[in-house]
Amino acid sequence: MKDDEDGAQDQGGGRAAGQAGQADHGKWARIGLRWGSLRLRLALVFGAVALTAAVSASGIAYWINREAVLTRTQDATLNDFRRQMQSRAADLPVRPSASDLGTTAKQMAADGNAYDVLLIGKASDGRTISGASSPGAFTLSDVPDTLRDAVRHRQKVSPANEFAYHLFWQRVDHDGTPYLVGGAHIDGGNLTGYMFKSLAQERADLESLAWSLGIAAALALVGAALIAQAAARTVLKPVQRLGEAARQLGEGEFDTRLRVTGTDELADLSRTFNNAAASLQKKVEDMSAREESSRRFVADMSHELRTPLTALTAVTEVLEEEADNLDPMIAPAVTLVVSETRRLGDLVENLMEVTRFDAGTARLVLDEVDVADQVTACLDARAWLDAVHLDAERGTMARLDPRRLDVILANLIGNALKHGGSGVRVSVRTEASGTSDGDELVISVRDHGPGIPEAVLPHVFDRFYKASASRPRSEGSGLGLSIAMENAHIHGGTITASNVPDGGAMFVLRLPRGAPRDEGPGDERGEDRER
Amino acid sequence: MTLVPFLLLIEDDDAIRTALELSLSRQGHRVATAATGEDGLKLLKEQRPDLIVLDVMLPGIDGFEVCRRIRRTDQLPIILLTARSDDIDIVVGLESGADDYVVKPVQGRVLDARIRAVLRRGERESTDSATFGSLVIDRSAMTVTKNGDDLQLTPTELRLLLELSRRPGQALSRQQLLRLVWEHDYLGDSRLVDACVQRLRAKVEDVPSSPTLIRTVRGVGYRLDAPA
Questions:
Q1: Which residues fall within 8 angstroms of residue A269, CB to CB, at 6 or more apart?
Q2: Which residues of chain B have pLDDT under 70?
Q3: Is the ipTM of this complex over 0.90?
Q4: pLDDT of residue A436
Q5: What is the domain extent for residue B48?
Q6: Cβ A314–B83 below 8 Å, yes or no?
Q7: Which of A313, A406, A513, A527 to probe the B interface (max B CBs under 10 A)?
Q8: Do B99 and B25 reside in the same domain of the chain?
Q9: Residues of B in contact with A316 (CB under 8 A)
Q10: Do B116 and B28 lie in a common domain?
């Protein structure tokens, strides 16, 4: 007799679970890619690997165990049944009575391996009779048709197959309990025997095995998550530190260095970063040292120049007053010395102003002033009142440094007069500022000259930038507009230059009316003390 | 006051000293010169100048120290010669008691105008006296008494007090005070006013840190009130 493979087996559940797991994994992977975080991706990869490993190991273990358990039970039971059939059932008379069948079935069940027996025979009158070890529990209708057909089917006897009837088995589900049903026909008789073996115990064993495997897989998953976290930390921590260090370096902290540990690729990267930072730091330091020394040179130089200039300036008036009484041959020389000394004085003063801005030592001396009065006074002091049309209302108060406002105005208006001839318009107004709280003081200076060439426009506030190389040198130090701009900046304001469509250039000064960012050291001392 | 102002010029650089002496002499001043602070202080004791022109950068004791030493005993007007590159210097100079300052390089005409403005502050007026609490300002005698004691005020401090007392209860802006007291043009340095107000408060107020006479008017300037 041979065991035939029958298709009635229940393996679908496991496969379905596997597919569900893969679907889950796909969904998480999509979220991971969308989130894009390396940490999440690492955790997902670790999780997926752990899940795959756990599911396949558990699946294989379960499958092997299941087959081992079932085959062992099945083989033992079927062998026992075969033996019983051969010994007990063969002893029955050819035409047994129903009670004979029942007694034999009971005996078989009692001797056998905990299974029920159903014997089917043919009575002398040709009726089909049956006897069961536990009557009522099983009838022939509980035996699947396929099994009944297979058992009754007569095989061809050949050298390879010496028996006409074989023992067949099938696993069925009866009232929610799995059963092994086996059947055999006695050769040369009308007796057919069936056995029912409950597999509940085996199923319970396999279920607890599946639970254990499931728990083990879950534990593996948790372990994988923890390992992923740890791995992410060991990999990402240095990456994070590197990112932080790069950011600091970008913000100008050139002494940023990383601690190099280990010999891996990240350590290599850290070393490379440190080398880059070191050479950058050296370069920046060299550059700023050079810049600093050249600044110091200019500052010291202008300082040194001032001492002889002070002496010269003090006596130029003496010379000037005497010029009329001098020899006509000498008088022009004296006048020239006087005027050039003044120019030199202005130049040195401008240079010193620039070095103060560069060194950051320029301070505001703030006061509440009437802007219209200041502009008028500035024009008056330079005898520009006739050449300039002023559009300003008295009573426009602003808190600013009057000396610096004067410097700005003198440079802007002087520039306009130089390049645009007379007809310069100066207007003072206030505007609600778009950015800061409080109003803005807006002073525009407009001339009617040829305007500023487009190529020059972006450079008008550059130091020593002159519109044309051939420009006569009497037109100024080349620092005026840049000093005006610096003075506007220190107030928290700005100057813009543009060309007016109907001819002429326009400079617009914008200063906050109330709250400059830098307060002079002597400012509001009385108020501070009273507060 | 003598007709020809007598000045003491303390300046260490020979060229500047000679040039300023020449220039000031031509403007009609009598000038004595000293090259160091120590010499200047010695000269100050021997001769009695009307005003001192003091360079800040001096070998040995510097201009600020000279200024402080003079102020300990004397209310003589002092004009500082400074380099504006050091803005903080001006503040220190004003705090050590200088009446005014000029920035190098200075034109003789400008220095002369400042000198004359400072000297004018000590000139008498022909008016009455005024009382603010315990403070009595006698405009004809040019004296100020507090609780009957004479206060030692520099001419600038006195002039500031007089200008404020002429408009009691009315706020004067720093720019107004600069024109009235210092006779500066529109570019006057408001720190002169603040420093002088501080010094004046130290002398006339009961508690200088919480003034009751010379009040600050925020965003405007100062005002002299009679205590309530």
A1: A238, A242
A2: 1-2, 84-87, 125-127, 228
A3: no
A4: 57
A5: 6-120
A6: no
A7: A313
A8: yes
A9: 107
A10: yes
